[in-house]
Amino acid sequence: MEEAEREEPSFLLSIVDAYADLCDYLLSSVVDSAKTVTMSLNSIIINATTFIVNVLWIPVRIASFLFTLASYILFAFTIPARICFNAAANFPIITILFVLTSLTLLYLIKRITQQNFIQWLLYTAIPYIASIAFTVLGIFVPQVNTLVNIVNHLSHPIQWILDLIATIRRRAAAVTRTVSVLSPRRDTNPAAGSIRRSPRLSVSSNSSVAGSPSTLDCVICLTNRKDILFRPCNHMAVCKDCLPSLMDEDEPLCPLCRAEIDSHFQVYY
């Protein structure tokens, strides 16, 4: 009987110990799971916060880049003004002479070439300077001429196609311009009691009756007086109101002799 009583408490103690071990295991599992979930949440929150901060900083970085770029551009554009200011502050007499010489040069360019300074710079000065630079470069670096010849040979088919298109457009423009000159134009707001004249009759009368008042009429509108002189053909055929429509063509031609118009100026009489 005593041995049976002693075995019962030991059995109960083993059950209690097993239950305690199970509780400890479950508690440690729950704690570990909680730690894992907490760490995962912390990492997710940290990553999300970092991503949001980076996204929100994108406009600030773009604005900073644009501001820096604008400051560099402004600095580059103000270089001539700062140079002129420093020159005027340190060398006033030389600056005045330079300004007067520049104004005189611009006036001479305007009078001689009938062009403003920008047109003269784009169509005369820069090509001339570029040709000199290219010639000097070809002397010291002969490989440049070889490269240019290779590029010319490679672009020959393309250049032929472009020349063909330019020829077609030139001929089409001449035909279109001839038709526009000879065909009558509709007046959207005719004056009361006015009689529309036929351009073909007016052109023929101009060519047949020399010295009559109709010879002073514009060959396009047949209303205003001719006051635009074309160079180099020296023909005066249109008025200043019809000049823009004529010069809008790719290669403007004189309506009388079909010569290319290099320049023009208004005549006052």
From TrEMBL:
UniProt keyword Zinc-finger present: yes
Example of a GO biological process term: ubiquitin-dependent protein catabolic process
Compositional bias ranges of the Low complexity kind: 200-212
One GO MF term: zinc ion binding
Recorded superkingdom: Eukaryota
InterPro entries the UniProt entry points to: Znf_RING (IPR001841), Znf_RING/FYVE/PHD (IPR013083)
Domain RING-type, first and last residues per copy: 218-258
Region (Disordered) residue spans: 187-212
Transmembrane segments annotated in the record for this chain: 37-58, 65-83, 89-108, 120-141
Alphabetical UniProt keywords: Membrane, Metal-binding, Transmembrane, Transmembrane helix, Zinc, Zinc-finger
Name recorded for this polypeptide: RING-type domain-containing protein
Native source organism of the sequence: Pristionchus entomophagus
